[in-house]
Amino acid sequence: MEIQRLLVGMLATRSPAFYPRFHPEDDLEAIENAAFHKIKAWDCYLIKLAKSLGNRIIYTIDESLRSMLDITVINPFPGDLVKGYYAYLKSMLS
After folding, report:
1. Other CB atoms within 10 Å distance of the CB of residue 75
2. Gap between the Cα atoms of 71 and 94, Å rounded
3. DSSP code, position 63
4. CA 74, 75, 76, 80 torsion: positive or negative?
5. Alpha-carbon distance 54 to 37, whole Å?
6. How far is the C-alpha of 82 from the C-alpha of 91, rounded, in Å?
7. What does the alpha-carbon distance between residue 66 and residue 63 come to, in Å, rounded to a whole number?
8. Distance of CA 71 to CAs 10, 33, 44, 77, 93, Å?
9. pLDDT value for 72
């Protein structure tokens, strides 16, 4: 939860540099959703941005976002290509 504390602290400054399009309340909601759904805060931020623009479709290889009930997640890449990508990343980090 350290990242949550840091993000909330940044938003507490109310600096427009951190949220040129969003209000801090929107960012805080994204952070809370991330903690609730156990997904990355950045993903929730992007979902909130998409919704604010009237879009409920997210194109991503991140299957964990399917836990968000009010969006449609579409993986534009074949499953074997995604598996190869993750295998490559894992080999680079080893």
Report:
1. 16
2. 34
3. G
4. negative
5. 21
6. 14
7. 6
8. 27, 13, 11, 18, 32
9. 92
- The pLDDT tens digits for 12-34 are 777 767 656 667 777 788 888 88
- The length of the chain is 94
* Of the candidates 24, 20, 30, 26, the residue with the CA atom closest to the CA atom of residue 12: 24
31, two tokens:
């952070």
- Joined tokens for residue 46: 């992007």
Residue type at 82 in one-letter notation: V
Question: What residues have CB less than 8 Å from 28, skipping those under 6 apart?
Answer: 8, 11
- Spatial separation of the C-alpha atoms in residues 19 and 16, rounded to whole Å: 5
C-beta of residue 40 within 8 angstroms of C-beta of residue 47: no
Tokens of 61: 């290889």
To the question of pTM greater than 0.70 for the whole model, the response is no
